[in-house]
């Protein structure tokens, strides 16, 4: 089941990747697979993490990517949007088609005062 984002823009560093907004990610999280690619200490740290995310540290992505569903829209999340864009680009290179980067990462998520978990 895929979700089509209403607010999306092309990532300036990875031309094949679309950036999506934290608010739309939150509003539609039940239709998405959210993957946080930060380190464990960041995931449980002061910024917390978005509800319903799975932690998959960026360095482990090559081994763990195949555990993600290919038939669902995946949004990668990190601290500011850089590592998650890398993760989305890697997933796309491995045949995943419905992958997105959450713009601004957890910094913007917190700035918007969206709910977090630790």
Describe this structure as you would to a colleague.
- The chain has 118 residues and is α/β, with parallel strands linked by helices.
- The chain has a single domain (8-111), classed as 3-Layer(aba) Sandwich (Oxidized Rhodanese, domain 1), CATH 3.40.250.
- It has 5 helices and 6 strands.
- It has helices at 22-27, 40-43, 61-64, 82-93, 105-111; strands spanning 8-10, 18-20, 32-36, 53-55, 73-77, 99-102.
- The chain has a 6-stranded mixed β-sheet with strand order 1-2-6-5-3-4.
- The longest helix is centred in the last third of the chain and has 12 residues, at 82-93.
- The protein starts with 7 loop residues before the first strand and ends in a 7-residue tail after the last helix.
Features:
alpha/beta, globular, 118 residues, 19% strand, 5 helices
Radius of gyration: 13 Å
How many structural domains? 1
Number of beta-strand segments = 6
Order of helices and strands: EEHEHEHEHEH
The CATH class is identified as Alpha Beta
CATH superfamily: Rhodanese-like domain
N- to C-terminal separation?
28 Å
Major β-sheet, in short? 6 strands, mixed
Assign the CATH architecture.
Answer: 3-Layer(aba) Sandwich
Helix percent band = 25-40%
Q: Outline the low-pLDDT stretches.
A: none
Average pLDDT rating:
96
Give the number of helices: 5
Going across the major beta sheet, what is the strand order? Answer: 1-2-6-5-3-4
Q: Give the structural class.
A: alpha/beta
